[in-house]
Amino acid sequence: MAAISASMVKELRERTSLGMMECKKALTEAGGDIEKAIEDLRKASGLKAAKKADRTAADGVVTVKTADDNSYAVVVEVNSETDFVARDTGFLDFVGQVADKAFADKQTDVAALMAGDLESAREALVQKIGENISVRRVNLVEGGVVGGYVHSNNRIAVVVQLQGGNEELARDVAMHVAAVSPQVVKPEDMPQDVVEKEKEIIKAQPDMEGKPAEIVDKMIGGRIKKFLKENSLIEQPFVKNPEISVGQLVKDAGASVESFIRFEVGEGIEKESVDFAAEVAAQVQASKG
């Protein structure tokens, strides 16, 4: 039997996008013949699933699983290519499996989380549904009082960590975060590069032109203060009672906000734009060749 080298496995992985162990097994069964291994894999389900891996999965759902004692929670995003699949029962069952395992293991490393049965379940689901499905990210919040909220369409999920307070308060704050999308907990948490970029934007605005430097600096200072207030959780008017700020809400309950995590489906993913007419034309042309 031919020796299976690491470079052979690497080449097969690059050509098929399949896992290392699956590629090694295919090469072993094919006696080290890469082309035969590819042919064999094309007859199996794995390669069909992997061939879809370059298709953008920017839809899907997010979910939260919280401990009964509100000591910790995990938030998970699982992507599909279309909203239709995101509502599929089989897909939602898979999302539940992912969340359950992440919760049980307190695991935030997606590769480690998916190793074994979950990856097999994902590949089987891809085969059944015919779309790329990927577990994009998992996060864990632990300590203090932890509460979560998932918007009714499963597209926004939030976990909030409080010092003091209770689960109901944490959930209320999480609901606010889902609705308003603050960038940071407190004004001083805003990254300096974000502040500097905002200053540049303000300075370039038309009403700054021709004004003395000291006036410009004063105007920039005022607008930065407003920017920080609008984008800091504790400074924002509470959505359920705009008469008070979120900071006042939690303070009145003898609590403080430690952190929050907000997942929105597909945020940051550049969704592929497909020209279906061109795609069909290309397929027709290829069939003629």
Molecular structure report:
There is one protein chain. This protein has three domains: 6-50, Ubiquitin-associated (UBA) domain (Helicase, Ruva Protein, domain 3); 59-190 and 232-264, 2-Layer Sandwich (Tetrahydropterin Synthase, Chain A); 192-229, no CATH class. Helix content is 49%, strand content 19%. It contains 13 helices and eight strands. It has helices at 6-16, 20-29, 34-43, 45-50, 83-86, 89-105, 110-114, 117-129, 167-180, 192-203, 213-231, 246-252, 276-288; strands at residues 59-66, 72-80, 134-142, 145-150, 156-163, 237-238, 241-245, 256-264. The strands form three sheets. Strands 1-2-3 form a three-stranded antiparallel beta sheet. β1 (59-66) and β2 form a beta hairpin. The protein is globular. The two termini are 38 Å apart. 31% of the residues are buried. Mean pLDDT is 87; it is low at 272-276.
Tell me the total number of β-strands.
8
How much strand? 15-25%
- Helical coverage, percent range: 40-55%
CATH architecture annotation of the largest domain: 2-Layer Sandwich
Low-confidence stretches: 272-276
Rg, rounded, reads 25 Å
The string of secondary-structure elements, in order, is HHHHEEHHHHEEEHHHEEHEH
- Structural class of the secondary elements? alpha+beta
Distance between the termini: 38 Å
Largest sheet: 3 strands, antiparallel
- If strands are numbered along the chain, what order do they take across the biggest sheet? 1-2-3
The dominant shape is: globular
